[in-house]
Amino acid sequence: MKVLLIGSGGREHALAWKIAQSPLLDALYAAPGNPGIADHATLVELNVEDHAAVIAFAKEKAIDFVVIGPEAPLVAGLADDLRAAGIATFGPSKAAAQLEGSKGFTKDLCARYDIPTGAYQRFKSAEPAKDYVRAQGAPIVIKADGLAAGKGVTVAMTEAEALAAIDDCFDGAFGAAGAEVVVEAFLDGEEASFFCLSDGKTALALATAQDHKRVGDGDTGPNTGGMGAYSPAPVMTATMVERTMKEIIEPTISGMAKDGNPFSGVFFAGLMITGKGPELIEYNVRFGDPECQVLMMRLKSDLLPILYATATGTLDRVDAEWRDEAALTVVLASKGYPGAYDKNTPIAHIPEASEEAKVFHAGTALKDDRLVATGGRVLNVTALGKTVTEAQAHAYALADRVEWENGFCRRDIGWQAVAREKA
Ligand code: AMP
Ligand code: GLY
User: Fold this and answer.
1) Is the pLDDT assigned to residue 346 strictly greater than 90?
2) Do the beta carbons of residue 212 and residue 228 sit within 8 Å?
3) Which protein residues are within 6 Å of ligand 2, measured from CB?
4) What average pLDDT does the structure give for the chain?
5) Residue-wise pLDDT tens digits, 93-131
6) Which of 291, 295, 337, 380 has most ligand 2 atoms within 8 Å of CB, for mutation?
7) Which end of the chain, N or C, is surrounded by fewer C-beta atoms within 10 Å?
8) How far apart are CA 85 and CA 66, in angstroms?
């Protein structure tokens, strides 16, 4: 099979690394890819926003299957256009990608199909939103409706914070994404990410993971795209997985199909495990980054036929097997992230991969044949271990061997699981 992978982050490096191990693979291309992905794929300079160019390239190289990593091309309808051109594609349609592209869309779906989630209201202007906040009181959560690179959510512990967040949204802090605002009840509990494939009819549960969104140790400082993750998430017991499938995933699949938007791709459900059980915080319609890195480390099965079955409506014929070990990834980011940071700082050394550990590239580039950091999140140091505690020790030992002066990382990735393992 000839495969084209779209994307350039740590998630796509993990997908490329795994796809490259498939005996079914004849050729792997990545657009635009990164220097880590270049170890497994031929990099192609394609403007992914130019759907006609992507289709032309796929036809020229006789690509059998396109795997789309990030959300932006999905929300822009790249999967629809590729499928219309007769090319099998992993990733939901533009209509189904609204599950991630519009928080209001997802909340309305939950309301229609009785999917447990925080009570909410949608607003198109500030005053009624503020009245609602005053009536509900704090803590309360303010969300820009559209895609805001993970930064459009304010968990307000006070009413004043909530009112300010509403002003920020309507004053354009998140551009068009903030033209509509969702105000949502605060859910108290432990968060987990649950990954599940769907071909529109059948669901295949993958695995669970836990992300670390805040930039600083002890979950302090501003939100980021994710500073590290581990899998499995111990809060997702077998009972919680079963309840999530039954109460959240299955009604979503059948509801989306009923509404004329069948969902094909990966559901990444952000869950809050509250006293009542699993409640949906949000859906994403692609693999999490860096959660994908830990899932790929733990996946024993060949990824390629699983993704292909998802895309071609034959998910009932495949299964996914997982290693018993835990996996943990530590994100090395540029000093200053998620604020301003220097670009093109040199990375002098990245340790070799082994069976048990691998450094995935996210924001790197080659400049004059030298590896430099170009992004906020730059490397994902990922390792396996018998326990999360052991995976954590392996990952940090490897991270300490990376030579990159302008990099930093959180030192406590996995703390919740490590505390549980000690108890
Ligand atoms: P989201 O972008 O919707 O995942 O929100 C970002 C983060 O805000 C989540 O990972 C949670 O930590 C937090 N959050 C979002 N919605 C809620 C909620 N209703 N209650 C508590 N925390 C929330
Ligand atoms: N790590 C969170 C995300 O991919 O959205």
Assistant:
1) yes
2) yes
3) 150, 211, 225-226, 284, 288-289, 291
4) 95
5) 999 999 998 888 999 999 999 999 998 989 999 999 999
6) 291
7) C
8) 12
At 144 the pLDDT is 87
Q: From the CA of 320, how far away is ligand 1's center (Å)?
A: 29
Is the separation of the CB atoms in 237 and 244 below 8 Å?
A: no
Question: What single DSSP character describes residue 245?
Answer: I
The answer to whether residue 419 scores a pLDDT higher than 70 is yes
Segment 318-347 mean pLDDT: 97
- Parallel, antiparallel or unpaired: strands 65-68 and 88-90: parallel
d(CA 89, CA 328): 29
- Taking only the tens place, the pLDDT of each residue in 155-181 is 999 999 999 999 998 887 777 777 889
**What tokens appear for 158 in the block?**
């006070």
Query: How many C-beta neighbours within 10 Å does residue 421 have?
Result: 15
Ligand nearest to the CA of 273: 1
Q: What is the mean pLDDT of residues 275-297?
A: 96
- Token match 């009112």: residue? 163
Q: What is the pLDDT of residues 71-80, one digit of tens each?
A: 999 999 999 9
The pTM of the full predicted model, rounded to 2 decimals, is 0.93
How many CB atoms neighbour CB 238 within 10 A?
7
Instruction: Give how far the C-alpha of residue 71 lies from the chain's centroid of Cα atoms, to the nearest Å.
Output: 9
Q: Work out the burial of residue 274: count CB atoms within 10 Å of its CB; fewer than 13 is exposed, 13-18 middle, 19 or more buried.
A: middle
The position carrying tokens 């403007």 is 47
State the distance from the centre of ligand 1 to the C-alpha of 208, rounded, in angstroms: 17
311 phi, psi to nearest 5 deg? -75, -25
Apex 311 CA angle, 308 and 314, nearest 5: 75
Q: Under a CB-based contact definition with an 8 Å cutoff, are residues 232 and 295 in contact?
A: no
Give nearest CA residue, ligand 2 atom 3. Answer: 288
The reported pLDDT for the residue numbered 173 is 79
CA of 155 to the centre of ligand 1 (A): 7
